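# step 3/5: fold
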Amino acid sequence: MTQVIPIGNRHMPAVGLGLWKISKQDTADTVYDAIALGYRHLDSAADYGNEIEVGQGISRALAEGICSREELWVTSKLWNTSHRREHVEQACRKTLSDLALDYLDLYLIHFPIALKYVPAEKHYPPEWTFDPHSENPIMELEKVPLSETWAAMESLVDLALVRDIGVCNYSSALIHDLMSYCKIKPSMLQVELHPFLTQENLLRTAKDYGIAVTGFSPLGALSYVDLNMATGEESVLVHSVVKVVSERTGATPAQVVLRWGLQRGCAIIPKSSKRERLIENIELSNFVLTESEMDSISALNKNRRFNDPALFCEGAFNRFHSIYD
């Protein structure tokens, strides 16, 4: 039976397919294959640059009757350049058009970072720098309060463009602030979570407010080695603690780490375009980690954040910008 996470009066499949860094040429087939293999949760974003191809994969699966639209959970995200009230609906409708869908199950603020607006006809996806083709491309910040962006997100629910709304990469402080003014409570918090970044206090904050949590990069360093943001030696999969559990359960090290994420009560969105990995990542229900094993894996925490604007913005986009202390 597919494990689910309650979202209001609905349920989201706890294991989804993360679509970050899947190439355009592979995306449509990967999405189709994933749905055919039993995935019912797809995690997309305008910034990933492959939503048209995601839509092609979904459309093919629906046309062949593999599942119905109602059986799919599709998440996307509002990019940083569309935080102003007048740009939020426009961005959402662009995503819906690319995905060839009438509504999103979940729409998230991608980062608590407002950047200068970039029209889709100028370049799309808008990326991090205002003009990536300039001699000195740079992030250009925009003065938009998060409360304005959230109010516009709420209007998307009223328009029936999205079923639920939430946030990514928020700290506990930002969640407290959001809960002080929101009319529609965020349904989801999506943040980086893996054994080297367990974020216990943040998870407890979300739980106290009744906000579900999705962990991205649930396998840690693997998503970042090719971006030179991590080294192979930082992989949690080679750690002796994980290997011992793998030997006891007969599960692969990756399955052990993913199962750890699920047993914390979180959804997870591992990424792969390889069929064998897609199968491996979703087959997590035939073994359970003991409390001792859960504790030993959690004890690997070193607060190692791989996806940190303070680390990548200055080098890649010519502006230091920290959102975590």
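# step 4/5: annotate
The chain has one domain: 9-317.
# step 5/5: archive (pending)
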